[in-house]
Design goal:
The protein is built from 4 helices and no strands. By secondary structure, the chain is mainly alpha-helical.
Length: about 140
C-alpha cells in the first residue's frame, strides 16, 4: 500500500526516473553546448582570418597604387626619362638665362624719353640737378 501511495496514478515516469534522465540530458546538453561553442569559436576564427586577409589585400592594393603614382610622378618629373613628347611634358628646351636671379628687373620701369631743350635753365639736366642738390 505504501508503494501505491508513492505512485501518483499516472502510470508513467517516477521522480527518480526523471532525475536520472535529466542528469543524462544535462551531460548530453553540456556536450552539445561544448560542441556548439567549439563550432562558433572555429567560425569566429574563420571570419577573423577572412577579414584579416581582406584587410591585408586592400593594404597591398593601396601600397601598389601609391608605388605606381610615385613611379609615374618620377617619370613625368624627369625630362630625361620622359617620352620626349614636348606637348605632353611641357617645354623641354630652356634658355640659358631662365634661372638667373636678376632677370627682367628694369622691365616695369618706364623709359624716360630724352628731349632736347636749347635753354640751360629749363633743360632736364638742370631740373634734376636742382632737385637733387638744391632742394
Amino acid at each position: 500500500a505504501s508503494d501505491d501511495d508513492d505512485d501518483d496514478g499516472g502510470g508513467g515516469w517516477s521522480d527518480d526516473d526523471l532525475d536520472a534522465s535529466s542528469d543524462e540530458d544535462d551531460d548530453d546538453d553540456d556536450d552539445d553546448d561544448e560542441d556548439d561553442e567549439a563550432a562558433l569559436q572555429a567560425e569566429l576564427a574563420k571570419i577573423r582570418a577572412e577579414r584579416e586577409a581582406a584587410k591585408r589585400k586592400e593594404e597591398e592594393e593601396q601600397a601598389a597604387k601609391e608605388e605606381e603614382k610615385m613611379e609615374e610622378a618620377a617619370l613625368l618629373g624627369n625630362p630625361l626619362l620622359a617620352n620626349n613628347n614636348e606637348s605632353s611634358s611641357g617645354r623641354l628646351k630652356r634658355r640659358w638665362n631662365e634661372d638667373v636671379v636678376f632677370r627682367n628687373q628694369a622691365k616695369g620701369e618706364p623709359e624716360i624719353k630724352k628731349r632736347f631743350i636749347n635753354d640751360t635753365v629749363r633743360n632736364d639736366f638742370h631740373k634734376r640737378f636742382l632737385n637733387k642738390f638744391i632742394r
